[in-house]
Write a structure and sequence with these properties.
This protein is an alpha+beta fold. It has two domains: 140 residues, Jelly Rolls; 89 residues, Arc Repressor Mutant, subunit A. It has nine helices and ten strands. It has a four-stranded antiparallel beta sheet with strand order 2-6-4-5, covered by helices on one side. The protein has a three-stranded antiparallel beta sheet with strand order 1-7-3. A three-stranded antiparallel beta sheet has the order 8-10-9. Strand 9 and strand 10 form a beta hairpin. It is globular. The chain starts with a helix and ends in a 14-residue tail after the last helix. Keywords: DNA-binding, Transcription, Transcription regulation. GO terms for molecular function: DNA binding.
Amino acid sequence: MHDHSRLLENKLERRDVITDCERQALRSVLTHVVLKPAGSDIVSQDALVDHSSLVVDGFCARYRDLSDGRRQYTQINLPGDFIDLHGFVLKRVDHGVRALSDCLIAEAPHDRLRKLTEEHPHLTRLLWLETVVDAAMHREWLLALGRQEALERTALLVCEIYARLEAVGLARDGAFRFPIIQAEIADLLGMSAVHVNRTLKVMREAGWLEWTGSEVRILEWDRLADAAEFNPSYLRLERLPV
């Protein structure tokens, strides 16, 4: 299972040194891998779960639905993310997870996670940190959706996605792939698709970025980061022992 945990290992090693033994423990937790097509649920809202899911490839998002079908995305998940690690202790997740693109998902049964936590305390702390960072991202986006203007929150999305993908080795030199349709981007940003299109046009014309299909290239990082008031500290990507 070496390749399926590689991106998670990359991210954890950005935060602290992990040993070969810990790498092997991570790999042994993952069992079979499933393909989830774009538009499908990876986890259903309010479902009982007996495993946690790791994104190997693709993009997905947590969401909450109202009884009449109105939906709010609460966080985007990228390759190398556990999308429901908190389900290990909660057993029932109060949100769904929808595939925004075709997704390859590796499953970690909770009995294997339990064994890992009993035998590898340092690795347990690093996985705990994953859930702490999840909470920090929720706070950042609560602020963005509640108080930032369209340009600011769109810049935040671009900056955050780049920083997170760069941490796992999927972005470099300002460039990354983001194969999400504009309607889904609009839902992530709490905007209409028309408003997203206009905002991206402003950014392109200002020379901040290029966005063609699923290919994004940041040309003016400082301007984007300033517009978003982006401070990557909430992502906890620096190496500090835990």
